[in-house]
Amino acid sequence: MRAYVGPLLAVALGVFGARCREAPITAPRPITSLPRALDAGESSLIGADNRFAFKLFGEIARQASPDSNLFISPLSAAMALGMAYDGAAGSTQAEMQRALELTGMTLDDVNQSYRSLIALLRGLDPGVAFTLANSVWYRPSLTLTPEYLAATRTYFDARVQSLDFASPAAAPTINGWVSDQTRGKIPAIVPDPVPDDVVAYLINAIYFKGDWTIQFDPARTKPGPFTLAHGAQTSVPMMTHGRTVTIGLLHDGDVTVLDLPYNAGAFTMTIALPHQPGGIDSLVAGLTEERWNRWTAALDSAALEVHLPKFTLAYALTMNAALKALGMPSAFCDSGHGDFARMNPTGQLCITDVRHKAFVDVNEEGTEAAAATAVGIGIVSLPPSVVVDRPFVFAIRERLSGTILFLGRVMNPAGT
Question: What predicted TM-score, i.e. pTM, was given to this entire model?
Answer without folding.
Answer: 0.86
